[in-house]
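INSTRUCTION: Work out how this chain folds

Token vocabulary: learned, describes local backbone geometry

RECORD BEGINS BELOW THIS LINE
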Amino acid sequence: MAKAIECRGVGKLCLAEYPAPEPDEDNILLKVLRSGVCGTDIQGISGRRSLRFPVIPGHEIVAVVDKIGGHTRKYIKVFGGNDLKEGDKVTINPRIVCGACYYCRHLPHRQEMCLNARTYGSSLGSSEPPHLLGGWAENLYILPRSEIIKLPKELSDDLAVLCEPFACAVGLVDRFRREHDWITGDGFNLNRSIVIYGAGAIGILIAAAFSLAGAREIIMIDLVEERLLLSKEFGVSHIINTSIASHCIEEVKEITGGLGADIVVEACGVPKVLTEGIKLLRRGGKLFEIGHLADVGMADIDPHLICRNEIEILGHYAYPSGQNLAYAARLLDEHDFPYEKLIHKIPLNNYATILDNNARRNIVKMVFEV
């Protein structure tokens, strides 16, 4: 039997047990080692985002291959080599794309746009066998069309569980670099100034990704001093605590020599940040919206500023494929930053902690140690 945290309705978590199934010919059974708690998990459990109840949440995992179906290599894509075997340490791309919709056929490099994607831990429910289709469990059952990423042997479990959120951060920086051209002078360079709202796991990992890409002026804005101080260990050069400072715009303008930031990233999920973020940008600047994966309300935006300053607002939902996770794993393996400081481990039976806002306030990434 495999223990799992199951959500049976809004706010209704319990510890359940299900048989660990034998994989069919086109499936794989994983033994989960670590499973991260994402903000989207909390939003789903609290009813602010759609979940398919009952469901086993969780999609940020590190695991080892427990059992392999005989023909899985025909049905499951493996990154990092096709010689997948029992005992290999892996993570997954939590989305299973359909391969047949408009976006899968015409924009294969943008898999995250798939109209019919199914996702471990949210749209794949647990009511019917094989049940174990979410990461907050001792085992995870991998379905056909999934993507599995083999991880470096030296990469610790605590760092490996960050592959999925770091892939979101790396994907954002990679997208910025793809969409701009060095020849026109609009490419990424050392002089770029970046403002990031939200010193949570995604915000700090975005700072790390921009720093690794060459940025040296990264401004982090948040309410929690402990998180802000921690972000300075991940390439952040300036911090602004909005519980103390009330003049973010003036501070950013002073730091950037009066011009404003080249890039603003909204990674905290607060609508009014968009209103302020646009005012922080220089002319020709770009705002990335990555924090609103749930509908939490509207933002007041001044269209004149967008028009006059030729500002671009770009939504960034996720990364396109398992290749981004493989790249994130390699960066984590290089250990340029103290990634382990982001992690706070708890056992599965301590699941009630994740719903305690006060308990989570100073914790960047809560992780189930399975």
User: Anything to note?
Assistant: Residues 21 and 130 are 6 Å apart (CA to CA). The longest strand covers residues 28-36. The chain has twelve helices and 18 strands. Confidence is low (pLDDT under 50) at residues 182-187.
